[in-house]
């Protein structure tokens, strides 16, 4: 309540002659919360509440500027108070792609998402954002044995299993680092894309990095929160690949090579996400993500079944299932 009072006082100082009401807009997996301010004339703005002891608003501001200049529809910043951890933003509405997507509109909405992604990627420059380097890729992968296997399943890997997992991790990282680099949103999926004008509104980009070109596509089409048939996903991927080549982005010349990169990047993301969802539950007491684990595991299983490079991981996953069933 103290934070909300500070937030209301700050907003009153910006608009001393206007009345407004404040209501929760959303929260995310971090300490950030969002409130929608509705003014007497019916207009709305969103206030980000990011307690400075937990959150740094500077990356959000920097990346927001880069993406806005690239032509993506991100929240415009009207005012900021970094000492208190408040930002006043334009309102991109309250309908996410996840809420809106259905079989009839999926192609159109994903076309809009692809176009926005290409704008962001075309604006990419090195040294603007942190690199998605080996250390970060590995740190993310390590969330899986630490939080999913050890904490969530309660299993200790054998020395042989650890060696096999490390072997697969090394192959995944090698592929990821070989890909052309662009700006990577890092959570470009149906919960962070808003149905808006222009479409889509893009949220939650503060962890963006400079890294593999297929990462955001893996987030978008191997989405932890919504399932599509593989034939549809491949069709959308081909549409992206054709548009990206036309725009001059550095995608692989051959679609099969591009698809292989996408699959390996997807594997890295699924491994990380399983670790993150387990950590959100066991460390942070957030159980809402547990229901999304089976779909993420299904994506990972399918990729491991397809590719010899990932086969040792498939064997580990099957062994973990057997061990979990015995308990």
What does this structure look like?
By secondary structure, this protein is an alpha+beta fold. It has 2 domains: 2-90, Phosphorylase Kinase, domain 1 (2-Layer Sandwich); 97-326, Aminoglycoside phosphotransferase (APH), C-terminal lobe (Aminoglycoside 3'-phosphotransferase, Chain: A, domain 2, Alpha-Beta Complex). Helix content is 51%, strand content 13%. The chain contains 12 helices and 9 strands. The protein has helices at residues 2-14, 58-70, 97-100, 106-122, 134-141, 143-152, 159-178, 215-221, 230-247, 255-282, 293-306, 311-326; strands at residues 20-27, 33-39, 44-49, 77-81, 86-90, 181-184, 193-194, 201-202, 209-212. Strands 1-2-3-5-4 form a 5-stranded antiparallel sheet, with helices on one face. Strands 6-9 form a two-stranded antiparallel sheet. Helix 4 (106-122) runs parallel beside helix 9 (230-247). The radius of gyration is 21 Å and the shape is globular.
Tell me about the biggest sheet?
Answer: 5 strands, antiparallel
Task: Write down the oligomeric state.
Answer: single chain
* Strand and helix order: HEEEHEEHHHHHEEEEHHHHH
Query: Given the structure, what is the number of helices?
Result: 12
Fourth-level CATH superfamily of the largest domain: Aminoglycoside phosphotransferase (APH), C-terminal lobe
Distance between the termini: 44 Å
**CATH structural fold name of the largest domain:** Aminoglycoside 3'-phosphotransferase, Chain: A, domain 2
Name of the CATH first level of the largest domain: Alpha Beta
Number of strands: 9
Shape: globular
The main sheet orders its strands as 1-2-3-5-4
| Low-pLDDT segments | none
Strand content: 5-15%
- Total separate domains: 2
Considering DSSP H and I runs of 4 or more, what fraction of the residues is helical? 40-55%
Structural class: alpha+beta
The CATH architecture name of the largest domain reads Alpha-Beta Complex
Quote the average pLDDT.
95
